[in-house]
Structures are given as structure tokens and as C-alpha cells.
Sequence to fold (331 residues):
Amino acid sequence: MGRPTLNSVAEAAAVSRQTVSNVINSPDVVSPETRERVLAAIEKLGYRPNTAARQMRTTRSQIIGLCIPPSGNGVSGVVLDQFLHSLTATAERFDHRIMLFTAADDEAETAAYADLIASVGVDGFVLTNTHHDDLRTRWLLERELPFVTFGRPWGAEDTHPWVDVDGAAGTRLATDHLVRQGHRKIAFVGWPEGSGSGDDRRAGWAAGLAAAGLGDGPRAAVFDGVEGGRSAAGRLLEAHEPTAFVCASDSLALGVTAELRDRGIRPGADAAVIGFDDTPTASVLGLSSVAQPIADVAAECVRQLRTTLRGEAGAEPATTLFTPHLVLRTT
Fold:
């Protein structure tokens, strides 16, 4: 059997050659059922598009750039690993490749953008860790370069495509659950003010307390990590004696549970703790947590960027906000 071709895929899937081409290059114009049938035929036959020929026709490299941030906490940092894996897998379905690089700060990252565009011809970029006054998005917008962000343009108008998870909705789910369980002193352990995602998660907790008529609850702001969670829990227990904790990350939640145990307070029995990110560590230790649909986020980032690259973006930038869900466990 010779090398599979566009025609052999079309025959196997019982569709036209143009439909196969559309699935590869413009999947949004094909019905989900037909798209899945064609993709199944592509996988079964082992068909690979002629990338070199496509690059000559489109003058595109099929490369997407992504900057890896400095190493963070080993627990919550796994979310970025999950995102990268899903992003790479989705991009490969459409014959794109992810090029990874590092940069110490925003200025170094924009310098890397310029170098990659000039040397490799990167088609576009996916950005993570968006924040207030983000130099990177301004730099890309000014040069009209294609990109999408995993994270909202905090404190700015929606001037570029973005995909994010509704952190406030997640902590609201956690808080509402704890209220239904009878808790009235529900503390929040989060990050210092100014973090877009951190402020968002704190807002969901505060909204949940307000809806339950519980007023302002006790909270502590610390840097992310298990030790930060320990420190925050210690201060909150001594000053307010909360019976439940909503945390901005699983790392903080693990620190809270460790401090509770050190004080003879049984997590899950004497006090409730809910984290955020639903990391594998949370699953192993039986920690309740808010789960983000990371695979969906990655797929939507690729879809939005491909739409921009094909020149099909609308007048208004595409924005997608996914809703997380609560995973309840013993702790």
C-alpha cells in the first residue's frame, strides 16, 4: 500500500476531496459528524498533509510561539503543564507546531517575539499569565500580530482574543457548598491584591458570603505555596476560628490542611478546605477542589488563533469564558 493521499482519505470517509481539505484547513465549516468521520479516516490511514507545499502556498510556517514562565510552585504549576500538553495535541491535529521559549519578564518576552518572527517566521503566539498593564499584549497589538491569551486583559478593554476560566464562579460554587453544609465562618486564603485571577477568585467567595447574609468574612493574603497556606491558616485560626476555608490554589489549600492537622483539627471532619485547580495532588490526598476545563481552554485558544490567521476574525475580538466545576472529596 502506498502513502495515503487526500483522495484515499476522502474515499475512506465517503466524502469529497474538498471536504477533507476543509477539515484540515477550515474545520469550522464542516459539520461535527462529518469532521469526526474524516479525522477518524486520517488517523486510521496515517495520512499526513504535505506541510512543505502548504507553506509555499500560504507563506506560513505553521509554528505557534509560547513562552514558558519561570518555574513556580510544583503543585499549582501542573496546570500549565496540562495546558501545554492539550495545546500541543490540539495544534498538531491541524498540522501546527508549538515552539517553546523562555523570558525573564515582559520586556524580554517581546524581544523574543521580534527575534522569532524574524528568524523562524512564527505565525502567531499564545500568551499565559496575563496581568494588569501587560506590555506583551500592547506590543503585539501595536504591530498587528496574531495572538490569543489564556487569561483576560485585566483592567483593560477586550481589545484582543482571549480565553479564560471564570474563577469567581468557581469560588462561588465552593462557598455556596460550604454554606449548604452549615458553615458560617468561611475564610478565604488567597494572593496579595493586584493579581487579576486572584482578585477574581476572592470576589466569588465574597459574593457567596453576601448572598448567604454572612457579611465580610475573614481572609488572608499570602504568596502562593504550601508554606503560605500554613501561615495564613495559622493567623486566621488564631484571630477568627473559621470552620471552613476557600483557597485560591491547591498549593495554599495543602498548606491550610497541614496547619489544621498540626493543631489537632481534622480536615474534612472538624474543618472543611476547598482548593482551586484540581491538581493530581489534590486527587491523591482527597482534597476538594475547583476544576478548570484546561483541555477546552487549549482547544479554544487554537481555534481562535487559527481563525485570526485565516483572516476570518470578526470586527470584535473573540472572547470565551469557561465555567469550572466543583470536585468534592473527603477533605
Q: What stands out?
A: The chain has 13 helices and twelve strands. Residues 51-58 have pLDDT under 50 and may be disordered.
